[in-house]
């Protein structure tokens, strides 16, 4: 656990836990999006001052990138586990059910941080969108390769457009994230998963 010294007006610097502060910042970004999260929101949640935030994390943009790293490491572990499933259908199901667990967690904001941030606009948000899109492209490439392997193994029919199938799955995942952030229940999302699996091109 990393501890940073927060600058104070006088006396010894006050120490704070960088990991806890970053987790708090992630919660703010996740619930409000990059643009909706003000510096006042962030410093209040993190329990530090603006100078302390700048000293430990850089600017707001840099803080977001670090929060996104934490989000991927802690909240998207299910995506890495999904790729290890023995069948393509199992991969897809693990992705979708893992997304439900992540998006409907009782201790985290609803929806997906990546989807929320990808819709940010304005000059300041361009690097944020670019980062989110690059990370998503990397994840999609891994999924394409997994489905290509399934095709080589005979687990997916030879005529399947693997890139199209991957885009289809991501469209479902992104739609679920939007619905989760708009008040959909777990049961609503479970129905989406069940319907999608009925349409999946392999058992």
UniProtKB/TrEMBL annotation:
Domain of life of the organism encoding this protein: Bacteria
Record-given protein name: TetR/AcrR family transcriptional regulator
DNA bind region: 38-57
DNA-binding recorded as keyword: yes
SUPFAM superfamilies: Homeodomain-like, Tetracyclin repressor-like, C-terminal domain
Organism: Sphingomonas corticis
UniProt entry keywords in alphabetical sequence: DNA-binding, Transcription, Transcription regulation
Stretches assigned to the HTH tetR-type domain: 15-75
Origin organism lineage: Bacteria, Pseudomonadati, Pseudomonadota, Alphaproteobacteria, Sphingomonadales
A Pfam family recorded for this sequence: TetR_C_13
InterPro entries recorded: DNA-bd_HTH_TetR-type_CS, Homeodomain-like_sf, HTH_TetR, Tet_transcr_reg_TetR-rel_C_sf, TetR_C
């Amino acid at each position: 656990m990393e501890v940073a010294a927060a600058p104070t007006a006088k006396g010894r610097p006050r120490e704070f836990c960088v990991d806890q502060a970053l987790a708090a910042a992630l919660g703010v970004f996740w619930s409000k999006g990059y643009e909706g999260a003000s510096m006042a929101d962030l410093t209040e949640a993190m329990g530090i001052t603006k100078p302390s935030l700048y000293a430990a994390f850089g600017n707001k943009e840099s803080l977001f990138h670090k929060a996104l790293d934490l989000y991927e490491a802690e909240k998207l572990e299910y995506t890495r586990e999904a790729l290890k499933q023995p069948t393509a259908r199992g991969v897809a199901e693990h992705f979708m059910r893992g997304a439900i667990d992540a998006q409907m967690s009782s201790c985290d904001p609803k929806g997906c941080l990546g989807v929320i941030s990808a819709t940010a606009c304005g000059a300041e948000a361009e690097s944020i969108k670019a980062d989110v899109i690059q990370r998503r492209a990397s994840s999609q490439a891994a999924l394409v390769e997994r489905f290509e392997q399934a095709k080589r193994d005979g687990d997916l029919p030879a005529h399947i457009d693997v890139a199209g199938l991957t885009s289809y799955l991501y469209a479902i995942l992104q739609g679920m994230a939007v619905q989760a952030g708009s008040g959909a229940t777990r049961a609503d999302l479970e129905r989406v998963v069940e319907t999608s699996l009925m349409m999946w091109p392999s058992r």
